[in-house]
Design goal:
The chain is of the alpha/beta class and about 180 residues long. A hairpin with a 7-residue loop joins strand 3 and strand 4. Helix 3 packs across helix 4 and helix 4 crosses helix 5. The longest helix is centred in the middle third of the chain and has 17 residues. It starts with 5 loop residues before the first strand and ends in a 5-residue tail after the last helix. It binds adenosine-5'-diphosphate. Adenosine-5'-diphosphate binds next to helix 1. Keywords: Hydrolase. InterPro entries: Macro_dom, Macro_dom-like. Its EC number is 3.1.1.106.
């Protein structure tokens, strides 16, 4: 049902969120990286990497394509599951917005499969993948608003004050469909 999901914002570290599922801004290899990915694997411990290795050996032998999402255990994190999604690398020449929107849609679809009521998202693609924050915030918020899901709370976890302010402004002006 559209309009069911409440969007909240916090400034902080996604690995500390007590939610049903945290979303990882992973890379296609699923085998770890920097930014959110590094923090999740550091705090979550080896169980998550083990689960990712199994996924690479079975369903995703060529890696997880950008825009898709898959769940694993959350290991030692205070969450039940980690949903790994791969954001697109920003390009000024090519519009990859739909792939970024797909990360949010697919993560919510997986969250529904997990029956997650609370989901924490980072600002996907805005770190190593260089997506401009305001545009990324627009895509993130409008996609969550437009995606029917049973998730009760989507919490955007912004690492620094600047990102938090951008999301706050975009959320204040975003119109909910329906
Ligand atoms: P991507 O490769 O998709 O760009 P990154 O992990 O490099 O992913 O960055 C995504 C966003 O997450 C950036 O805005 C970055 O500042 C932020 N970030 C980095 N570490 C954390 C963390 N522990 N919790 C929440 N956000 C984080």
């Amino acid at each position: 049902m559209t309009g069911h999901t409440r969007v909240t914002l916090v400034q902080g570290d996604i690995t500390e969120q007590q939610v049903d599922a945290v979303v990882n801004a992973a890379n296609s290899s699923l085998l770890g990286g920097g930014g959110v990915d590094g923090a999740i694997h550091r705090r979550g411990g080896p169980e998550i990497l083990d689960a990712c290795r199994h996924l690479r050996a079975s369903l995703y032998r060529k890696g997880l394509p950008p825009g898709q999402a898959v769940a694993t255990t959350a290991g030692n994190l205070p969450a039940r599951s980690v949903i790994h999604t791969v954001g697109p690398v920003y390009s000024a020449k090519e519009d990859r917005s739909d792939l970024l929107a797909s990360c949010y849609r697919e993560s919510l679809r997986v969250a529904d499969e997990l029956e997650a009521a609370t989901v924490a998202f980072p600002a996907i693609s805005t770190g190593i993948y260089r997506w401009p924050m305001t545009d990324a915030a627009h895509i993130a918020i409008t996609t969550v608003h437009a995606t029917p899901s049973q998730v009760q709370e989507v919490r955007f976890v912004l690492f620094d004050a600047e990102a938090y302010t951008v999301f706050e402004q975009v959320l204040a002006t975003a119109e909910r469909p329906g």
